[in-house]
Amino acid sequence: MNDEIRALEPKPLWNKFADLNAVPRPSKKEERVIEFMKNFGNSLGLETEVDEVGNVIIRKPATPGMEKKKAVVLQSHLDMVHQKNNDSDFDFENQGIDMYVDGDWVRARGTTLGADNGLGVATMMAILESDEIAHPELEALFTIDEETGMTGAMGLKPGLLKGDILLNLDTEEDDEIGIGCAGGVDITASRSYNEEEVPQDSVAYKVKVRGLQGGHSGMDIIKGLGNANKIMNRVLFGGFENFGMRIAEINGGGLRNAIPRESEAVITIESVQKEDFSAEAGKLIQDIQQEYNSLEPKLLIEIEETQMPEKVMELGVQELLLKAVYSAHNGVYRMSPDIEGLVETSNNIARVTVKNGKIEILCLTRSSVESTKTDLANSIRSGFEMAGFEVELSGAYPGWAPNMDSPILKVLDELYQKMNGEKADIAACHAGLECGILGHNYPDMDMISFGPTIRGAHSPDERASISSAQKYWKFVLEVLKNVPEKK
């Protein structure tokens, strides 16, 4: 199935990526990939350990002549975001990813590719397996559940790692050296409602929002892309305010860390309002599509008649829901005043579900400043609580503060310029990397992040650049050769 992937250069990297992508590895269901990685380490005769939360650590001694170098921790996460197109018949829990080559890109058919962070994992596997790559003493740390809570990094105990330097291989631009990242907190708003009979002489419609790009709710939030949940809410709000529309169901978005691409709702309108509703909704749809024309040219908002639902939401709660989602902030909240072009704080309204008397809304708030993260989370929380929702803040994790005096940063900065004839972009990012959490228990460890170019992470449009992987692979090998010596 992936023979053309295995033929790509560098073969050690792409072959390990193909091996990994044959193993189902959704977040919080990593049992098979943990066993896979444990067996891999044992097959090489290397010291292999699985800690109490499921992180895998494989240790490899320094190659001859490298014993005086500082010990290095290579780190990537085993889990991947599972997103697919609605028309894709794919079972993430039982199927391997179906990859193909498209010019300079490796893609997956109808699903996420898993290059985030699978290419980092594959890099570590290839280095561990090689008898030819020069490197200092290594600890390969494969963490679990990075994408939906970072529980692997959070559960890693102090003292387990002995390395001096940590190389996180989870950055998605090959000209970027990461020195900091945002922290985050999950917001879950939920409440119940009474179901009522559908008003007499009504017609039912299915409303669909689709064709949006989606993407990483941290790295791509600055682009101002369409959020299917916010767009759907806007359409439903107009129908409610002007025509007394009633909601039966909503199913929008997916994972917290993915900008929602699609949403569906089932609604009813009194038959006498049918023509006016269709005309007014058509105008609103044209307005929304025009607003997003340059950013989301494939956006479709469709309204078609459907089978009558059995029940609809009670009117009072419906009004509170629509107003609460309308008022909840989505997108960039504040840009960093200190680092040009860096998003400091944002929120992603990731998932909205309404069915069988239950409403649930999932958000992910990110910030590189703890106080601003708390400020925005409390703002969103307050709006939902005033609408009668119960709100839970959970899964909070810290950001990673930049250290411009990092010794390993100096090594990477000089090497990149020497190898590529230009300076790297030394930057903090708005994504959540595990460095902030790991640094809490290992405060003296010198950390840096870099990786190959990946586009469309957390969406079925995810793709990895082949030429960039070649550039990145050479860079990794040079970094390992040039690690500073122990003092």
TrEMBL record:
Annotated catalysed reactions: Hydrolysis of dipeptides, preferentially hydrophobic dipeptides including prolyl amino acids
EC number annotated for this UniProt entry: 3.4.13.18
Pfam families (alphabetical): M20_dimer, Peptidase_M20
EC supergroup of this enzyme: hydrolase
Required co-factors: Co(2+); Zn(2+)
GO biological process: proteolysis
GO cellular component term, pick one: cytosol
Keywords on record: Cobalt, Hydrolase, Metal-binding, Metalloprotease, Protease, Zinc
Top-rank taxon, per record: Bacteria
Molecular function (Gene Ontology), one example: metallodipeptidase activity
Annotated signal sequence range: none
Domain called Peptidase M20 dimerisation: residue spans: 209-293
UniProt xrefs under InterPro entries: Peptidase_M20, Peptidase_M20_dimer, Peptidase_M20C
SUPFAM superfamilies membership: Zn-dependent exopeptidases (SSF53187)
Protein family membership: Belongs to the peptidase M20C family.
Name this polypeptide is given: Cytosol non-specific dipeptidase
Organism: Salinimicrobium catena
